[in-house]
Write a structure and sequence with these properties.
The protein is of the alpha+beta class. It is 38% helix and 10% strand.
């Protein structure tokens, strides 16, 4: 899979720096659910979903070691939840929202909304997800 090009940015990679990603047809719902079942990985996806652009792995403040962080990003990538690519020396990540919505309509939005409701119910434990289109934080419809 080629690295995405966003906002006119030029992304160059050499063959040694290209990361393996499943094609859209290879993404399976049980793999996506497994990837999203871990609180750290869910926190990563919530943060990526709320970002305006790709995020570098170093941008995340996670309560785990660097090697464990790498593992979590790999699980998300290998299960088709995120895409990762290099820009210079930075490894950038973004959610594969278009692919996930095409394969499993509403799944990602529901999981993110549920994570937000859970964070509110547990007094802010974890990172609440971004407001989704049509929904305010906490899952209430916007008016």
């Amino acid at each position: 899979m080629k690295a995405p090009v966003r906002s006119g940015a030029t992304v160059t990679t050499n063959a040694a720096r290209v990361l393996a990603h499943p094609s859209r047809e290879e993404i399976r719902v049980e793999g996506v659910l497994h990837a999203l079942s871990d609180p750290v990985r869910l926190r990563i996806v919530c943060q990526l979903a709320g970002a305006a652009d790709e995020q570098a792995c170093s941008h995340f403040d996670l309560p785990v070691s660097k090697s464990t962080t790498t593992h979590h990003f790999r699980v998300l990538r290998e299960n088709g939840v995120i895409t990762q690519f290099y820009r210079g020396t930075a490894k950038l990540s973004c959610v594969r929202k278009e692919d996930l919505d095409a394969l499993f309509p509403g799944l990602l939005d529901s999981v993110l909304r549920g994570a937000g409701l859970q964070a509110g119910r547990l007094g802010g434990a974890g990172t609440p997800p971004p407001a989704l289109s049509g929904a305010a934080p906490g899952g209430a419809e916007r008016t």
